[in-house]
Design brief:
Number of strands: 0
Strand content: under 5%
Shape: globular
Structural class: mainly alpha
Radius of gyration: 21 Å
Order of helices and strands: HHHHHHHHHHHHH
């Protein structure tokens, strides 16, 4: 699992602060989408309610849970202390306030979202500075450093492009490049920041959870190189309008993700653990789904009319690759961290619950299976514009997210 007592661990109150906030944002994003999401069925994705829901999901949940996880995992993965924990608490307050007000303004008055957006940017910049100072203390950089470092650069670019979009919306300046900036914002935020981050930490967590040894790591270099070049080429294509560069960029992203999937398979095959834990299994399933989505996206962009599937593909990529990966890992990490924090010093002195008692794993398979089914239902509703199908799928998905949040919260009662 996650090594402890190396002198580099973070006080878990800091990462858990981010995780608590993220779970609340997750539930709110789904309720907001359920109430206002019918407009998505008609292809209306760029409306205030959808912007607000999307940013609550991406910033309020995925970004915040990623930040919290990094505060815990970076010291473990890179064997170095977080630069300044007190600074981390200040960064949490600033970022949480920024995301809350930013999402609210996107819903009520998007033209006034610039100042909350800048506050969010400040919180993210504080996080980037924290991580830069922390990684700077690492004695020997590795390929994991490259993945995480590049993901942080993509995060900076993403939030900068987001602020630029708000500025363009408010002033009209740069209107000719609005579409290119918007596409770049999505690309760098979803396939840049989140995917590169999951790649990097998967190379640390997969061997831990599978108890794998003796596997090669040379494949990671090809994954990194192909994916980074794919991001750059795709980014250039948005501003030049070159369809050839766009297809090449998506082909490189597909190649990088495919090699990553193959490499993870090799690592899992080298495991000592015969039976994989259920949450971890769903994180591996998310990798397979992510690979399929990359393939479908490449084929779609090679077709003459791809506009109808862009929104649905972004949606399913967010939910079945990024969200499913994070949830799978959270179901492993949160119980372990809480058990270590609360009971590790009591072993041999008093009766303590086992790690398996911290989470009811029997609910994980049905919950995440229904989650996958609900996302596919919503995807079909968006692709074929079926309102009733969307309402059913999104209602089930909202209930599932509430159950996921409550099941994670229940760990802290153990």
């Amino acid at each position: 699992m996650l090594p402890q007592n190396m002198g580099s661990e973070t006080n878990i109150k800091l990462p858990f602060s981010f995780i608590f906030f993220s779970l609340i944002a997750l539930v709110l994003s789904q309720i907001l989408l359920l109430v206002n999401g019918q407009m998505m069925v008609n292809g209306s994705f760029r409306i205030p309610a959808i912007w607000s829901s999307a940013h609550l999901l991406v910033l309020g949940w995925a970004l915040m849970v990623a930040m919290g996880s990094m505060y815990q995992l970076v010291p473990v993965a890179f064997l170095t202390k977080i630069w300044n924990e007190k600074f981390g608490y200040i960064q949490f307050i600033v970022t949480a306030a920024g995301i809350s007000t930013f999402s609210a303004m996107l819903y009520w008055a998007p033209q006034r979202a610039l100042i909350p957006g800048i506050l969010t940017l400040l919180g993210i910049l504080m996080f980037l500075f924290q991580m830069f100072m922390t990684l700077k203390m690492q004695k020997k950089p590795t390929i994991l450093t490259a993945f995480v470092g590049s993901a942080l650069v993509c995060l900076f670019i993403t939030i900068t492009l987001g602020i630029t979009l708000i500025y363009c919306l408010k002033t009209g300046v740069g209107a000719a490049y609005y579409q290119a900036i918007f596409k770049s914002h999505l690309l760098m935020g979803i396939t840049g920041w989140f995917t590169l981050l999951i790649f990097g930490f998967s190379y640390k967590m997969v061997p831990m959870f599978a108890l794998s040894h003796g596997f090669p790591m040379v494949h990671a270099r090809y994954v990194y190189g192909l994916y980074i070049v794919g991001l750059i080429v795709s980014l250039i294509s948005f501003f030049t309008g070159s369809s050839i560069l766009l297809k090449l960029g998506f082909l490189l992203l597909l190649a990088g993700f495919s090699i990553f999937s193959w490499h993870i398979r090799l690592i899992v095959k080298k495991r000592l653990k015969k039976r994989l834990d259920k949450p971890f299994t769903f994180s591996l399933i998310a990798i397979c789904i992510g690979n399929i989505i990359h393939l479908v996206a490449f084929i779609t962009w090679c077709s003459h009319d791809s506009s109808a599937l862009i929104g649905p593909l972004v949606y399913v990529y967010l939910l079945l690759w990024i969200v499913l990966s994070i949830v799978g890992y959270l179901y492993k990490i949160v119980p372990f961290l809480w058990w270590t924090y609360k009971y590790s010093q009591e072993i041999g002195k008093a009766k303590v619950p086992s790690l398996k008692d911290m989470m009811n794993e029997k609910i994980i398979t049905p919950i995440l299976s229904i989650f996958i089914g609900a996302v596919i239902t919503v995807f079909c509703a968006l692709a074929f514009k079926i309102t009733i199908l969307f309402n059913i799928g999104q209602f089930v998905l909202s209930i599932i997210f509430i159950i996921i949040s409550l099941s994670i919260f229940s760990v802290f009662k153990k």
